[in-house]
Amino acid sequence: MARPKERPFASTEELLEITDVSRRSLYEWVRLGVLPVPRVMSDGNGVYSRWPKIAIDHARFVVEQRELGYALDEIRPMVHARWGSADKVPIEEAVEYEKKVAAARHARHAKKRRTDASE
Fold it and tell me: Where do the domains of the chain lie, and which CATH numbers do they carry?
């Protein structure tokens, strides 16, 4: 029997399980540059993030370093040394990302309200 293809991305739920932090904290980690930026996706039924697969390795590393007592600001250069990308996400990019997520959620809720009202 053929094995199912591995997804080329990680889900937010996978990262939440690995890190045991809130969604808000995950996105703060992105802003601080210890996690890569996910792609925001919408299929008309919801909004979700698709994280680069490497985000799983980043998340595990960050958790290990936090357990050793390091702060996120101390972990960022470690991530940079290991993966070469630890610069802070420019605040404009982080704000734009959050706006996209909020707009997609708003659209989903508006669609649901219209559907509920027409029933």
Answer: 9-118 (1.10.1660)
Q: Is residue 86's pLDDT more than 50?
A: no
Query: 77: Cβ–Cβ under 8 A, 6 or more apart, which residues?
Result: 86
Tens of pLDDT, residues 39-65: 887 777 777 888 888 899 999 999 999
Burial category of 106 from C-beta neighbours within 10 Å (exposed 0-12, middle 13-18, buried 19 and up):
exposed
CA gap 12, 22 in Å, rounded: 10
What's the one-letter identity of residue 58? H
Q: Which of 1, 107, 15 is nearest to 52 (CA)?
A: 15
Instruction: Read off the tokens for 81.
Output: 């040394």
User: What is the CB neighbour count within 10 angstroms for residue 29?
Assistant: 23
Note the pLDDT tens digit of each residue in 66-75: 999 999 999 9
Residue type, 29: W
Q: What is the pTM of this model?
A: 0.64
